[in-house]
Every structure is written in structure tokens, then in C-alpha cells.
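Quick start: what a row looks like.
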Amino acid sequence: MIVHISGTLISKKNKKIVVDAAGIGYQITVSASAFADLGHENSQVKILTYQNFREDGVELFGFVSEFERELFMLLIGVSGIGPKTAIEILSHTSAHAFKTAIENQDLRTISSIKGIGKKTAEKLIFELKEKIKEFVPPGTPQPANYVDTEVAFDTLRGLGFSYNQAKEAISRASARFAGQQKVESTDLIRAALKELGK
């Protein structure tokens, strides 16, 4: 499972980018906001990814923040929402605005997103209104003992653990450090591996 790609941004066109990593070119579909946030061609980038397996091949979807990727994962967990639809949703609203709309059960705002009708908007609100509360938008002030879990998450995914396994193990491991002022990612990884029985 490819969880991130670091390399040279070779091209940007129509929400698709190509990143050269160690001589291999990866074509990645990104949201409009991620596309805009990426630098110019030939710049060095790191893209968080989701690998979608299809009968006719493999697709890569990319994100510039863990928050956006987690929202994407939530979206494709809703029946009837595939990766391409999820990317379209993230392309027509910011991750922060979408989270706020779901929390406020703002049917009008959600159904105004291109490709989302009233019934789909209702389904999104119903299935995500509780789950989305745990996601913290970038830039939100964090408590003193906040632990940045991105490195630990990427490491577990790189070791072959599923998205849910990594997420749950890190959540349980983070609870062990409650009250501590600073937690190193290596300590969190070790604790998460213990939770996974490794």
C-alpha cells in the first residue's frame, strides 16, 4: 500500500499531477484545493495518497494534509460514494467548510455541491454527523499534550497495516500518553505496535 510519495512534481493538469520518485512517474488525482496548494512544476513535493484497486488497474488519489485524506476516507465509507465522487466533493468545498456543514446538518450547502443531490446530502449527514466530530481542521489550537499522529500513521500503513488497524491502534496508544507535555513519534509507534501485538 502506497501511503505517501515524495519527489519532483513533473506536471499539473486538470486535477491530475505526475510525481517522479526515484525515476518512477506516479499519476495522482487530487482535489482542486490540493491542486492549487501544490507548488510549481519541478518543485519538490510530498503527497499523501490513497491507493484504489479496480478490475482494470490501480488509481492513486492524493492529498496535501492528513485532515483532507481522513475526510476522503470517511466519504468513501458512505454507500454510493466512490473515490472520484469524494474527490469532487473535496474539490467544491474546503475540508473545513464541509466538516462544518455536516456538523450543522446544513442540507442546503451540502446539496449545492456539484454532483450531490438532496438524497445523497441527507445520507452524508446521517452517516457522518457523529464520525466527523473527531476530525480537527489544520490550524485549530491543540491542547498542550497534543500528539501529531501523522508520522506514526504513515509508518504503520507502510508496514502493511490497514487504515482502520492503524487508526485504532494509534488512538489507543495515544491514550497512554494523556497528560504528557511532549510525545515523540517513535514512542507512539512503539506503543501502537504493542496494541497491534507486534
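That is the whole record. Residues 75 and 86 are 6 Å apart (CA to CA). The first helix runs from residue 32 to 37.
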